[in-house]
Amino acid sequence: ILSGAPVVSPVASASHPDTKTALAFWRTRAGDGIGPAWREIELLELPASVAPRVMVVDVISDPLDYRYRFFGTWHAACHKRDMTGRRVSEYPDPEYRTVISDEYSAVVMRRGPVLSLLSMTLNHVHYDCEILRLPLSDDGTAVSHILVVESLIATGP
Q1: For 68-74, which contacts have Cβ atoms below 8 Å and span 24 or more sequence positions?
Q2: CA 113: distance to chain centroid?
Q3: Is residue 110 over pLDDT 80?
Q4: Residues 88, 96: Cα–Cα separation, whole Å
Q5: 65-71: strand order across its sheet
Q6: Sign of the four-CA dihedral 150, 114, 43, 65
Q7: pLDDT, average across residues 131-150
Q8: Considering Cα of 149, then 70, then 66, then 77, what sign does the dihedral take?
Q9: Which of 18, 30, 55, 118 suits a disulfide with 148, CB 3.0-4.6 Å?
Q10: What angle do CA 37, 114, 28 make, to 5 degrees?
Q11: Can you say how many angstroms the Cα of residue 116 is from the centroid of all Cα atoms in its chain?
Q12: pTM for the complete prediction?
C-alpha cells in the first residue's frame, strides 16, 4: 500500500550513501551514452549492503511492459514473493503496479536516471525509500534494461 505518490527528485539530490555508491558505479560505466550495456554490469562489484536491494528490469515493447531479470533478496522478503522472470503487469496490487510501471516508463522516455522518494507499507511494515532507476542500453540509443537500487531511509511498524 502506497502512502502517496512518489516524489521525483533531481539525481544530484541523492542522500543515502548506497544510492550515491550505485550512481557512481553506473556513471563509471555509462560514459557519454544514455547508459552502459547490461553486459557491462557486474552486480557482484556492488557493495554487499547494496546488492540485496538491486533489481534489474528488462524493457519489453509492443505493448510496453517490464520483466524482472533480477529481483534482489531484500525485495523478495519485503514483497513476500520473488518476481524474477515475472512482468510488472503481473504484480497483484494494481495501485503499486501502476506506480512502478510509470516510474520505469519515465526512465525509458527520459533516457536517463530517475530518483524518487516513496513511502509504502508492505506486509504491515512501513518503508520510506530513496529509489534510483538507471537506464542500461544494449545498442546505445534505446533503454533495454533498468538497474534499480532501493535505499531505506526509515522503517516502522
Answers
A1: 69/145, 70/43, 74/150
A2: 10
A3: yes
A4: 9
A5: 7-9, 114-122, 125-136, 145-156, 54-60, 65-71
A6: positive
A7: 95
A8: negative
A9: 55
A10: 40
A11: 10
A12: 0.90
